[in-house]
Predict the structure of Lysosomal dipeptide transporter MFSD1.
Amino acid sequence: MSESEKKPLLAKDSEDTETKVYVGNPCDPRGCLHRYFPVLVIMCFLSFGSYFCYDNPAALQDTMIKDLSLSESQFMLLYSLYSWPNVILCFFGGFLIDRVFGVRMGSIIFSLFVTAGQVVFAFGSLTNLFWLMCLGRFIFGIGGESLAVAQNTYAVKWFKGRELNMVFGLQLSFSRVGSTVNMNVMQPLYSYIHNYASGYKCLGIALFVGAVMCVFSLLCAFALAFLDKRADRILKRAAVGSGDQIRLWDVKHFPLTFWLISIICVAYYVAVFPFVGLGLVFFEMKFGLTPEQANSVNSLVYIISAVASPVFGFLIDKLGKNLFWVITGVTVTLGCHGLMAFTFLTPYVAMVVMGLAYSVLASALWPMVALIIPENQLGTAYGIMQAIQNLGLAVIALVAGIIVDSKGYLILEVFFMAWLCLALIAAVLLYLTDVAKGGKLNMSAKERHSHKELKNVAESDE
């Protein structure tokens, strides 16, 4: 769910089209109060249901495997099927919003896909039809990532030139809140429903609660569309696109540093999200935790990143040294997996530190692309990175399930550590390549600012 972490839009400021600021009237779209409440509040809840339901399987891993008689590889297929459509759709989500549907209709359509997918997923569980559950996760995946694109487009339309950095941070935080609530609510909810139903029927009823969350986000999409259309009429605003146009032929111009960043991206993320998907039973088996305790530990990565991502993003903007932070994030995450694999130290420590490391890496990695790729090619660059990331998640989710079925969790941890070693090697190679080209990626913020000023002076002299 990485769209929220991309920041190519943050550097694009524009003139405020309003000539007068209205503060106090919450119904006036020209006022800051209206932008914050209700618009920003509804905007943050737009993808809440999607993030809540994405990790429904992780929150109910042991009960889902038991009630449906699944293997771990079948269980991880539910995650893989979410990622497969996004290998392609990441190139077209922005285009569909810009040229076909518009942001209002696009957000409603993608919310409908998310809601329909979760309903089919829950109904498949209620009727013990695993193929129907798989179909539901595929439909859910069609809407999930594209809905995040629509959310970003709304943010640009309402807050460009004002508080866009803060808004992107809040959206990411709310997304992680949705994941955290899921991790801590679904297991107790299942236990409560178990008093009235059992087996796969109990599981299906619990998953329908996730569908209710999706319906809530769908209602937010309708409300936001109404407010946005009203504001367009009052302010006579022009349409705002979701980002840069995708042009696949730009790939031939991308430098080696971009491909190294893409390798770091996929090698790091496949060691975090599939681990969270399989973490519940791992914490129960190795550390003797109850399902509720295991879910609390498993959700720590999301809880920490919800708070820490905006903070680290702000600090890295001020300090620079992006490559240093990327290498630090990869190394610390590798150490966390090592702790959980080879020691019996309480997993709370490793998961809290992993949440911090994940927040650092996400804040430092994605903005580096904007430092090496021209602005008119950023849409293509981020689309390719997202496609590679989703392809990696789709494949590794399946492989991780097979490893647990055949070899167990220790080998799975070694597998994840191998991917993190690959990410670390790619990060070191990126550092060496960058140094050979002038060290742009690891400049401090002050050095980067001075470098930009010198470049502007040189261009003006020409």
The mean pLDDT is 87.
